[in-house]
């Protein structure tokens, strides 16, 4: 099986509210998205890298470069198995020491493509025969707040929304 195309998309997404960490305050996220296509199916992946190299050396822009110049040519040139596409990709690039977020964005898109092509849920593809949970508990991350009352309100709102974990940024 061949991946017919790999497309990169750059978007800026405004945050619902500003987010402050010890690195600074942000009001938007720069996001690198990857789309792969084969046999009439598509898979999307997202890089977790930020717009600026404050948290990690890897950024959304460096991810674009790594994917466009190094990963995409291999992904598009390779003959891949009909099933297990993402696992084969992960094995192929397992010796790479750097740019894990760029590699993961492509791998994520390949997992979704693999599930689409097999007409199965991504959840069942990940599970690979193991038992599957109906729900996965999620948490919320709250930025640094100058006012304790504002922070307390956000914590309370998170609990009321059903979050089971609340991560607080501190200085």
UniProtKB/TrEMBL annotation:
<dbReference type="InterPro" id="IPR036849">
    <property type="entry name" value="Enolase-like_C_sf"/>
</dbReference>
<keyword id="KW-0479">Metal-binding</keyword>
<protein>
    <recommendedName>
        <fullName>Mandelate racemase/muconate lactonizing enzyme N-terminal domain-containing protein</fullName>
    </recommendedName>
</protein>
<dbReference type="GO" id="GO:0046872">
    <property type="term" value="F:metal ion binding"/>
</dbReference>
<dbReference type="Pfam" id="PF02746">
    <property type="entry name" value="MR_MLE_N"/>
</dbReference>
<dbReference type="InterPro" id="IPR013341">
    <property type="entry name" value="Mandelate_racemase_N_dom"/>
</dbReference>
<dbReference type="InterPro" id="IPR029017">
    <property type="entry name" value="Enolase-like_N"/>
</dbReference>
<feature type="domain" description="Mandelate racemase/muconate lactonizing enzyme N-terminal">
    <location>
        <begin position="18"/>
        <end position="125"/>
    </location>
</feature>
């Amino acid at each position: 099986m061949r991946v017919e195309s790999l497309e990169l998309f750059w978007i800026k997404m405004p945050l619902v509210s500003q987010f402050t960490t010890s690195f600074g305050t942000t009001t938007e996220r720069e996001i690198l998205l990857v789309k792969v296509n084969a046999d009439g199916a598509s898979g999307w992946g997202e890089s977790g890298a930020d717009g600026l190299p404050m948290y990690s050396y890897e950024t959304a822009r460096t991810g674009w470069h790594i994917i466009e110049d190094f990963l995409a040519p291999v992904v598009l040139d390779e003959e891949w198995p009909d099933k297990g596409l993402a696992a084969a990709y992960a094995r192929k690039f397992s010796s790479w020491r750097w740019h894990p977020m760029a590699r993961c964005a492509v791998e994520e898109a390949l997992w979704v493509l693999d599930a689409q092509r097999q007409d199965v849920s991504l959840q069942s593809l990940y599970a690979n025969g193991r038992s599957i949970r109906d729900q996965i508990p999620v948490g919320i991350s709250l930025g640094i707040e100058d006012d304790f009352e504002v922070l307390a309100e956000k914590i309370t709102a998170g609990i009321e929304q059903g979050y089971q974990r609340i991560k607080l940024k501190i200085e």
